[in-house]
Amino acid sequence: MIVCHYNDPHLSHAVNSLKNQSKKTDIVLVDDGSAQQFKHFYKNVKIINLIQNRGIGHARSVGINYTLNRRFNFIGFLDSDGIAHPRFIEKAIQYLENNKNILGVSARKDVANPKSRIALVKYHYKIYKEDNFQLDCSLFRTEAIKGRTMPDRIVGEDSVFIGSFSEGALRKLNLPYYHFEREDIRSFFRDEFYGAYYSFKSNPMRITKQFLATPFSSLKMILVKRWVLEGVLFPLRQLIWLCGYLMGQNY
Description:
The chain has two domains: 2-179, Spore Coat Polysaccharide Biosynthesis Protein SpsA, Chain A (Alpha-Beta Complex); 185-247, no CATH class. Helices cover 45% and strands 18% of the residues. The chain has helices at residues 11-19, 56-68, 88-98, 117-127, 142-145, 157-163, 185-202, 204-212, 214-223, 228-247, and strands at 2-5, 28-32, 46-50, 74-78, 82-83, 104-111, 137-141, 170-179. The chain has a five-stranded mixed beta sheet, sandwiched between helices. Strands 1-2-3 form a three-stranded parallel beta sheet, with helices on both faces. Helix 1 (11-19) links the parallel strand 1 and strand 2. The two termini are 26 Å apart.
């Protein structure tokens, strides 16, 4: 399993969740130029220290290249602010071995810090439409990774990588993993702003439809989901997305 991080305060949770798997798991930790080196922090973990911070896309490519040369049967990813279910690797391998036509599986996202109102809003926005396949906690057949390119981006590299697989080749397990969402408003809107450009570029028609449906979505959040704060903030979130797209932020 490849874990890439840059000064992430939640890193120990991610690494320990992989160490505590029901099936023995090799861990590759790619430190993307953090101010503090983690070389001696974790036993039985392969540490790759990058001198310069170049973003998650580059770090994941480094991890992929390392693992491809080690002849693993399966290669997976866990976000540095994620917590894998203790049986994720076991269940993922079992599913892939029983379904030869499936190239990769991921876990179902849940929120690790639900007591933070902003974190819960961020989580609700992510799952509002549908909880699709996520690279955040995933496992692939090694042969499915070979020949694929991880975009050298700081944001949106996972969407492009997932999009390189044919429809139906990926599945989501009914098994949770827990993700630490942003807990302050500034970081929340900054992420939304920076993510807008790539989302529009990858599927402009779908995003345009979402914009046109903003009033309906806000009412649905408030009246059906009972997410009052989410519904109130949603138009502002959409406006920030629009600004991010129009300015063409390449973050």
